[in-house]
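Morning, I've got a small favour to ask if you have a moment. Here's the protein in full, and shout if anything looks odd to you:
***
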Amino acid sequence: MKKKNFFIQNKTFTVFGVLAVLLVLAAVLAPLIIGGVSPVEGSLMDAILPPGAEHIFGTDKLGRDIFTRVIYGARTSLAAAFSVVILIFVIGTALGILAGYFGGIADTVIMRIADMLIAFPGLVLALAVAGIMGASIRNAVIAIALVSWTKYARLARSLVMKIRHRDFVAAAIVTGSKTPYILTHYMLPNVLPTLVITAATDIGSMMLELAALSFLGFGAKAPAPEWGLMLNEGRAYMQSAPWLMVFPGLAIFVTVVIFNMLGDSLRDILDPKNE
């Protein structure tokens, strides 16, 4: 019996994978898509123009083209979201594996720190950290990463503890395998599938948290094209010029849906329970 093509067999993953790739390409190729239009420069003569032939998404209070800013905003928003996910994935996975494998004092210290962070609402704590560090997209990324790694640490720890005393690990220790080798060749491969699924589904939520920080004034600063900041700038014109909020909001909505669906479909593929 002929085996089905992977992409045909997993149509949902294929569709949303293609859409995610298109989003990333749009961000990377923003200068080619837009041409010579600047996302930060405008003309007050063209301020608050509704969507039309010349400006398909309209213009903002400074006469900047909204379509240009939305496309360039994909660069900032996607790069920041990916940075947060990579940071919390690496930090949480490393700490979780160490806590689960060594136990004892290492486990107690790492898990108690995680428990303290979990005790506070994540976004509120991120706001406090970002407020202390100052408003910038880099500081917003650091603030969210500092409060969001705990989920990965706890998950990695629980997965490592399940296999810590398995026979193949004991055999590796008896045959003289060093601890770094055991961690990288036995522990890490066993936790990666679950953590990769978690990371894929977290891209959308991390983007929402970054947009929330920017909207509240703790993230990207003007005149940077960032979707959360654009929502904040358009808030004062919600009734008179709704397109200032509609298009950045749609960009966030579509991007979050795409990555959430991609994460769900990836979970269906990699989850051993579905095999």
About this structure: The first helix runs from residue 6 to 9. The two ends are 18 Å apart (CA to CA). The CA atoms of residues 89 and 152 lie 6 Å apart. The mean pLDDT is 87.
